[in-house]
Amino acid sequence: MNKKRKSSSLLRLFPFVFLLGMVFLIGNAFITVDYKEGISGWSSIIRLNLAKLKMCKTQFRPPGSETLPRGIVASKSDLEMRPLWGAKRNKKPKQNLLAMAAGIKQKESVNKIVNKFSSSEFVVMLFHYDGSVDEWKEFEWSETAIHISVVNQTKWWFAKRFLHPDIVSAYSYIFLWDEDLGVDNFDARRYVSIIKEEGLEISQPALDPHLSEVHHQHTSRENKSRVHRRTYKVIGRARCNENSTGPPCTGFVEMMAPVFSRAAWRCTWHMIQNDLNHGWGIDFQLGYCAQGDRTKNIGIVDSEYILHLGLPTLGGSAENKTDSGELDQTKSQHSSDKTKPSPISQMSSGRSEVRKQTYAELETFKHRWKNAVKNDECWIDRFRA
Ligand SMILES: *[C@@H]1O[C@H](CO)[C@@H](O)[C@H](O)[C@H]1NC(C)=O
Ligand SMILES: *[C@@H]1O[C@H](CO)[C@@H](O)[C@H](O)[C@H]1NC(C)=O
Ligand SMILES: *[C@@H]1O[C@H](CO)[C@@H](O)[C@H](O)[C@H]1NC(C)=O
Ligand SMILES: *[C@@H]1O[C@H](CO)[C@@H](O)[C@H](O)[C@H]1NC(C)=O
Question: What is the pLDDT of residues 137-152, one digit of tens each?
């Protein structure tokens, strides 16, 4: 098909090339009879057209826009609100984006989180998975937030559908957060200035180890440091040290509170699978989206840290925190090994179904990754020792 098209476009070019040749010949003939002035005009026009042809051929046009003049093509967008009439108020566009899942049962926690993000610097986008939207109107920030409501969907489902990289490319950093986070020791503006300074393409605030559900040693807060990029603990069979090159020792963040740079998000978006709603497995592969060395460009910010409350927010009774309390203990016993299912007998049935689903999805994702690697002859594993 492609070949055919190529050769047919060559055919179409043929008369043009032929004409050019003729003009050139005639031009040469004229030179011999010394009409130099007119000729140099002609040939310069030809040269110009040739240059133009060459330039236009190499010019990039977004797919689908080839038939439009370039200046009219708006291939990217943003989430700024626009007035219905009158001039646009001369406000500075917002620099960053906070997108988070939001159920009305977590109203207080969501409100606290949003209040940590200055409204002049952050666009706020809420993914409502419980159908409640009007119930948020009591908060002043709700009026300028972007509300998306689809019942029973996860953060990753929303992110894949509503945070397309071309839509959110206006934002330097994208916070894609869960709602069950304690933010007493977190300030978004300071956080952004730290990751900018440290050159972190993918990051998360450290988890307070005393009060959080900590799944991975690596993301647990270290005292006295501003940022850390690796852990030195022994994790299962892995003995993490300064020579470790990847997860679980370095080069990943957890999925409850990741922060992406524009470029890292563009890559990560592509990795999110449409049918794997819980996003499990992506965390350990984020290194491939780190825009270079994952041991340098991925890090945990210790000086701005959060609590992970570990509430069963989707697919379970969110009111009953005793569930998650018990989950915490089983978690910390087998800390940091997600592939080992924790006992699920004490959980509500919705919750345990979700749990089962996440492990199944993790296996599917790993399987897909393996196959993709096997079938892509051109792909080079940049992290292969
Ligand atoms: C870190 O600091 C907290 C109190 O701020 C203290 O309880 C804890 O023992 C410290 N941990 C280490 C490893 O120094
Ligand atoms: C790390 O690598 C260096 C150089 O190969 C080696 O000398 C050192 O012993 C290694 N450290 C650990 C903890 O294995
Ligand atoms: C959403 O999930 C709840 C259970 O968690 C269920 O009762 C309800 O029917 C679901 N709604 C839709 C539209 O799927
Ligand atoms: C939560 O669990 C406790 C005991 O485990 C029970 O007494 C209580 O009624 C539950 N609350 C809700 C809202 O389900």
Answer: 999 999 999 999 999 9
